[in-house]
User: Which sequence fits this backbone?
């Protein structure tokens, strides 16, 4: 996952419950659909939200999580 990406790993470790990680583009966050879901699951376990500005993706609401799941399957 983020093992070979030290700054991503540092970001995930730094994030705390109630925080939201914000990225500009989805491809800067995840390398594949599997990677995306693994990273989001890690954030979810920590109680951390996720927002992507360019693709308007937000996991801080149930509707947004559903949209993200749909988009990532494509």
Assistant:
């Amino acid at each position: 996952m983020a093992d070979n990406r030290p700054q991503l790993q540092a970001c995930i470790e730094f994030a705390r419950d109630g925080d939201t990680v914000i990225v500009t583009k989805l491809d800067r966050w995840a390398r594949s659909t599997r990677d995306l879901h693994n990273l989001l699951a890690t954030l979810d376990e920590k109680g951390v939200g996720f927002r992507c500005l360019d693709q308007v993706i937000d996991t801080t609401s149930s509707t947004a999580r559903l949209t993200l799941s749909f988009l990532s399957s494509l």
About this structure: The two ends are 21 Å apart (CA to CA). The mean pLDDT is 85. Helices lie at 6-14, 33-46, 62-73.
